[in-house]
Amino acid sequence: MSTQSSPLAAALVNGNCGLAFGYAIGIFAVINTYQTDLSACDKFTAKSACDGANYIGKCEWIPNKPSPKKHSVSDFDSMTSGDIFEVLAAGKNNSDENDGTCVYANDAKAKCAKHKTSGPCASAPEKCAWNKDHKDAEGKADPICEPTGEKWSAVPVGLYSTLFVIGCTLGGPLAPMLLGKGRRPTLGVMGVFNLVGQVMLSVGWHYNSYAVQVIGRVLGGVGSGIACVVGPIYAEEMQGRHTWIGCLFQLGCVFGIALAAVMGAALDPSTALSPGSRFGGGAHTQAVLQGTIHFGTFLILIIFPVIFIAPESLQKAATAEDDEATSVNKQQIDITKAEEEEAAQGSKGKQILKYLIPIIAVCGAQQLTGINAIMNYAPEIMKNAGVKPLIGNLYVMLWNFIVTPISIPLVSRVKPKKIYYICASLVTVACFLTFIPSYPGIITNKDASNAVNLLAIFFFVAAFAIGVGPCFFILAADMFPKHLQDLGTSITITVTMTFNVIINFGFPVLVKLFAGKDNDKAKGFAFTFLVFGVCGVVSCLTMFKTVPKLRSEYESEYAEVATEDSEQE
To answer: Which of 136, 312, 321, 526 could form a cystine bridge with 439, CB 3.0-4.6 A?
Structure first.
């Protein structure tokens, strides 16, 4: 087996692992928004749209009763022009299937409307929510209690998002067990988990089964957790840690997230609210949903031909063929004498303990500042900033994709650890900047408040995409000596996924908690980002103090000494 590096294989593997992972992340925001839109029965004005949403929203189409006719066609000779128009209009209304109203089943709207304050509305046996932003026909504030239909509440939304990350957290520790069999077999297992998860997600949507959907999310999460470990490790072993290939996992990830946002906006079922709209006025809603899901299936299937053409990595090949490894490859596998001495001291479990605080700090700077809250709940956050949910989601994800490639030339010129430190600090600042316009009353002008809010969110996304996201995966593989790399990288991914679980579940719960009885989501968003900012400060300060010198920094020093020695000879 060849032990030569393969940049093309490293790029394909790392990029494709990130691509499938990114689409799985991005699809949540789309699915959650679809669920919300298809639960709003009273917004549908086409019968086909009402019927198409019925399996989710439990809507009911009530045809309008035709107005009584004063005349019939037989009375034509005695009719005035006005009478003739009335007969023709009545005939048209009777033949128009869209002459009716889409309502919540079981008279839910009337039952919720009986509750005149936020407290009784929140505790009502019906599925109701207090809408403090509702306005009457004259545009005056008129808070009311409204039915939510089958819209997921904060806990099911949090669980739906979180269970995917729990799957990732399980996939992280599973990866080292598989990596011993080889990088290519590990990629194959990853693809199978992702594929089965997509099938379960599709079946769950078809039968409107929340339980089946979340099982699919867990299985897909296991595959994604494996991808987060094997992709960066394969790239590092095949092409080194500081080339543009090391950034491809994150670049593929943000491209996958952007693709999910594009699909969500393009196939948005809320465009089928009225007669004559796209996709048959809502008649093909299920096909739209399945199309959004199975585009992700296509991205997963791409990995299998990549596995077929990719060679086994240098590390695995060198382990199997030590006698054939060249001195260059030996340098890549065991760089310093200090590492060899450390490897001989005690078990890996004891040695890894000294890295736990740096791992927690690095993962905290990446996750506890709230990036996945923005990625998963961008439609809601952008709606709070005055933008249509799925369009706002599309703007955020495209911006994320546009700025991420900046990391490729940047990481070739500046040390990844330095980039990570600077950008993690900027992300923390962005959290505090987001609090200012989000909190009601700090900026009284609504347009100005929305503009500052958008700028803060886009600043956050840029700082994360340029530095924190790409460099995290470089640090995850580079922070440990070679004999601890598989275990250390796995633990790092597990910790970051654990923090991800906390954020994904905690964000909607915190927003609801801080929103109070009046359901003031603006206040909820503001205080939640304030918490993220505090977490960022603690994580960054700890990271600055505890993260050790990277293995690549030792290698660089070793190479400089070797060069000086050779010049002296």
So the answer is: 526
Under DSSP, the state recorded for 397 is: H
Q: How many angstroms separate the CA atoms of 14 and 313, rounded?
A: 12
Cβ–Cβ < 8 Å for 52, 205: no
Contacts of residue 26, defined as CB under 8 A and 6 or more positions apart, other chains included, come to: 256, 257, 258, 259, 260, 261, 264, 375, 397
Question: What are the tokens at 30?
Answer: 């789309």
Helix residue ranges, H only, 38-137:
47-57, 81-95, 108-113, 118-122
Q: How far apart are the C-alpha atoms of 134 and 139, rounded to whole Å?
A: 9
The alpha carbon torsion through 395, 397, 402, 408 (nearest 10 deg) reads: 160
Question: Do residues 35 and 160 lie in contact, with contact meaning Cβ atoms separated by under 8 Å?
Answer: no
Listing DSSP states for 505-549 in one string gives HHHHHHHHHHHTTTT-HHHHHHHHHHHHHHHHHHHHHHHHHHPPP
Residues 540, 425: contact at Cβ < 8 Å? yes
d(CA 350, CA 330): 26
Q: Residue 464: pLDDT band by 50, 70, 90 thresholds?
A: very high
User: How far is 208 from 391, CA to CA, in rounded Å?
Assistant: 25
Type of residue numbered 550: L
**Which pLDDT band holds residue 361 (cuts at 50, 70, 90)?**
very high
Q: Are strands 100-104 and 144-147 parallel, antiparallel or unpaired?
A: unpaired
pTM attached to this predicted model: 0.69
Cα angle, residue 474 at apex, residues 473 and 480 outer, rounded to 5°: 105
The Cα 170–Cα 28 span in angstroms is 19
What confidence score (pLDDT) does residue 431 get? 93
φ/ψ of 115, rounded to 5, equals -85, 115
